Amino acid sequence: MRATANEPNNGVLRVAILGSGPSGSALAAILARRGAEVTLFELGRRPELLVGESLVPAVIPMLRRLGIEEQIASIGLEKPGASFVWSPTDRFSFTFARFAPAVPPYAYNVPRPQFDEVLCANAIASGARIVRSRARVERASRESGTELALTAETLAAASHWRGRPPDLIVDATGRSRLVARVLDIPTRIGPRNDVAHFAHYEGFRWEEPIGQVLITRLKAGWSWGIPLRDRLSVGIVVGRTDAERLGDTAEERLTNAIALEPPLTALVGDARRVTPVATYSNYQLISRRGYGPGWVMVGDALGFVDPMLSPGVSLALLSAELLAEGLTPLIHGRSPLDLASTMARYTAAQMANLDAWFNLVAYFYDGRMAAMQRAGREWVEAGPNFLRVAAHDHIERQVALQASGVKVASRYGCGLLRLLGRYGLRGIDPAALAIQ
Ligand SMILES: Cc1cc2nc3c(=O)[nH]c(=O)nc-3n(C[C@H](O)[C@H](O)[C@H](O)COP(=O)(O)OP(=O)(O)OC[C@H]3O[C@@H](n4cnc5c(N)ncnc54)[C@H](O)[C@@H]3O)c2cc1C
Q1: Residue 222 Cβ contacting ligand 1 at under 6 Å
Q2: What is the helix (H) or strand (E) element at residue 242, kind and residue range?
Q3: Is the CB of 134 under 6 A from ligand 1?
Q4: Cα Dmax for the chain
C-alpha cells in the first residue's frame, strides 16, 4: 500500500479486487461493510457450466456470516453427506449430521454460475462497486514503490477513481492467475496430471439419499456425481494418457467413460446430457509467492488443491475471511500495523490450509484412506466391544472434522492420520486401492 509505506494515509483503504468468483466477492462484501472503498472487476457473463458445485460443511458458517445462506438454500440442494465407492466391497457412506455439532450437519450442492451471482450481488449490496470489464495488470515502474499496477485502460474503466490508482490490488482471478503470470511467479505443482470432463444430465438413476455426493473409483481415475435441484452433475477425473485413450474430444471421453465404467453406466447410461461437456486441467498449483508491495492473491489465484473432497470454494471463502481480518485495522489508514506483515501472516495461514488439504487428499489417491477404512471395519467386526467401537468412532470423527473443512489443519487429526497410515493398515496393501 503506497500511502502507508511512505506517508500517513488518512484516507480510507481503496481496494481493487480482480475477479468476482467466491473469493473476490466475499472479500469485497466484508471489506465494503467494514468501510473500505472496494471496486470489483469481472469479465462479464459467466459460462453455463462452472466447477465447484459441491460444498463442504465448513462453508455454512461463512455463508451465514455473509448473510446469504437463505439465498443459497433457494438455488441449491441440501447435501447431507457423501458416499465413497472404492470397490464393490469398499464402500463408505456417511452423513455430516453424525458428527454434529462439531461439524455443521449439512452443506449444499449449487449451480455455480448462480451461486457466484448471489455472492457478487451481495458484494454490491454491501457497498462494493462493480466494473464489468477484463482487468489487466503490468509491472509497476521502480519509482512507484509498488510491484504491480493496473494498466491505464483498466484504471480508466473505474471512472470513479478519477485516475488515482487503488492502494491495494487483489488477484481473485482464479486459475487464470493473472498476477502470477504477469510477474512470472513460479508455482508448486501437485503430483497428479489429471484432466476433468463434466456435464449435467437429466433422467439419471439415483440410489443414494437425496443430495448425497457420490465419489466412485473407476478402472482409470474417479468420478463424481453431484445432484443439483433438477439434474445430476457427472464428472470424470483421469490421467492424461487415460483421457487420450478414451477419445479425442471431451464429449467422446465422457461418453466412452460412461459406456465403459459399470458404475457410470448404471448411473447415467440411459440419461440425457443437457449441457455441453466442460474440461479442466492443470489445476494442482500453488503459487510460490502470494503477495508483494501493493498486491495480494486470494482463492485459486493463490492455490488450488484438487477436486477430490471439494475443498475449493471453502478455501476461497476462507482466504477472503483471513485477508479481510488482516486488512480491517488498516481500512482507515491510521493503524500502526504494517501491511507487509499482515500479508505475510495471511499468506502463511492460507498456505498451511492448502498444504493440509493436499495431504488429506493424498490419502484418498494413494489408497491409504480406503485401506484404513477397511482395516477399521474388519477390526471392529472381529471383536466388537465398547473400546473398539469407541476408538473407531473417534477416528471417523477426526477424519470428518478434517474432510468437512472444519479442522483440516488440526495437528491432532493430521498426526492421527499419519500414525494410522503407517501402523493401522493391518496388512492391507493401499496400492491395491489407489486411484490410477
Ligand atoms: C475439476 C474441478 C472440480 C472442482 N470441484 C469443486 C467442488 O465440487 N467443490 C468446490 O468447492 N470446489 C471445486 N473446485 C474448485 C473451485 O472451482 C474453485 O476452488 C473456486 O471456484 C475458487 O474460487 P475463486 O473465487 O478463487 O476463483 P474462480 O471461481 O475461478 O473465480 C475467478 C473469477 O475471476 C474472473 N476473472 C478471471 N480473470 C479476470 C480478469 N482478468 N478480469 C476480471 N475478472 C476476471 C472470472 O470470470 C471468475 O468470475 C473444482 C475445481 C476443479 C478444477
Answers
A1: no
A2: helix 240-246
A3: yes
A4: 74
Residue type, 157: A
Question: Ligand 1 atom closest to Cα of 56?
Answer: 11
Locate the ligand 1 atom nearest the alpha carbon of residue 226 and give its number: 8
Which residues, including other chains, have CB under 8 Å from residue 336's CB and lie 6 or more apart?
Answer: none
d(CA 263, CA 19): 37
Q: Which fold has domain 194-281?
A: D-Amino Acid Oxidase; Chain A, domain 2 (3.30.9)
For residue 21 and ligand 1, the question of a CB distance below 6 A is answered with yes
Class level of CATH domain 2-76+111-187+284-358: alpha beta
Cα-Cα-Cα-Cα dihedral of 182, 183, 187, 193, to 10°? 20
User: Which residues, 6+ apart, have CB-to-CB distance to 116 below 8 Å?
Assistant: 20, 21, 22, 25, 46, 50
pLDDT per residue rounded down to tens, the chain (436 residues): 443 333 334 589 999 999 999 999 999 999 999 999 999 999 988 888 999 999 999 999 999 999 999 999 999 999 999 999 999 999 999 999 999 999 999 999 999 999 999 999 999 999 999 999 999 999 998 888 889 999 999 999 999 999 999 999 999 999 999 999 999 999 998 889 899 999 999 999 999 999 999 999 999 999 999 999 999 999 999 999 999 999 999 999 999 999 999 999 999 999 999 999 999 998 889 999 999 999 999 999 999 999 999 999 999 999 999 999 999 999 987 453 568 889 999 999 999 999 999 999 999 999 999 999 999 999 999 987 899 999 999 999 999 999 999 999 999 999 999 999 998 898 999 999 999 8
Q: For strand 129-131 and strand 37-41, is the pairing parallel, antiparallel, or unpaired?
A: parallel
Domain boundaries, the chain: 2-76+111-187+284-358, 194-281, 366-433
Q: Which of 25, 51, 56, 118 to mutate to test the pocket of ligand 1 (most atoms within 8 A of CB)?
A: 51
Handedness of CA 179, 184, 190, 191 (dihedral sign): positive
Of 251, 261, 198, 192, the closest CA to residue 225 belongs to 198
**Is any atom of ligand 1 closer than 6 Å to the C-beta of 49?**
no
Q: Which three cell numbers stand for residue 408?
A: 483440516
Of ligand 1's atoms, which has the minimum distance to the CA of residue 41?
A: 43
Q: Is 299 in the pocket of ligand 1 (CB under 6 A)?
A: yes
CA angle 234, 63, 364 (to 5 degrees): 40
- Kindly report the backbone phi and psi dihedral angles of residue 91, in degrees, each rounded to the nearest multiple of 5, phi listed first: -130, 130
